[in-house]
Amino acid sequence: MPGFIRGNYQVIVGGRDVTSAMRPILEELSIERAAGEASDTCSLTLADPKGQVRLPQKRDTVRCFLNGQWAFDGFVSDVNSTGGKDGRRLKVSASSAD
Questions:
Q1: Which of 90, 89, 88, 56 is closest to 74 using CA atoms?
Q2: In this structure, are residues 27 and 15 in contact, taking their beta carbons and an 8 Å threshold?
Q3: N or C: fewer beta carbons within 10 Å in the chain?
Q4: CB–CB of 90/55 below 8 Å?
Q5: What is the CA radius of gyration of the chain?
Q6: How many CB atoms are closer than 10 A to CB 69?
């Protein structure tokens, strides 16, 4: 389900609803369902031109809902920041595996 989500979505990280804060800077929300016992994954890509986004910590919980329906539950597995003085791009990866 890769691609920019323009519809109704909600993202909760570390127990905080961050949907409103990320709506203007969200570039991509991707959720991949894995077969069998493999982990589902979620990836959030954010443009942070002013460097003001608070980075989540590894193991923070992540919950995503699409169109009011549950879509993903997991934990932050990686946070990647690229860029510099002119802004940065953040990629937050989460996995359903504990």
A1: 56
A2: no
A3: C
A4: yes
A5: 13
A6: 8
Q: How far apart are CA 31 and CA 79, in angstroms?
A: 16
- Give the tens place of pLDDT for each residue, 40-86: 999 999 998 887 788 899 999 999 999 899 999 999 999 998 887 77
Residues 38-51: b if buried by 16+ CB within 10 A, e if exposed: eebbbebbbebeee
Helices (H) and strands (E) in the chain, counts: 1, 7
Residues 6+ apart with CB under 8 A from 13: 56, 60, 61, 62, 76, 92
Whole-structure pTM value: 0.84
Among the listed residues 59, 70, 50, 66, the one whose alpha carbon sits nearest the alpha carbon of residue 5? 66
Q: What is the DSSP letter of 8?
A: S
- CA atoms lying within 13 Å on the CB side of residue 64: 25
Straight-line distance from the first to the last Cα atom of the chain, in angstroms, rounded to the nearest whole number: 22
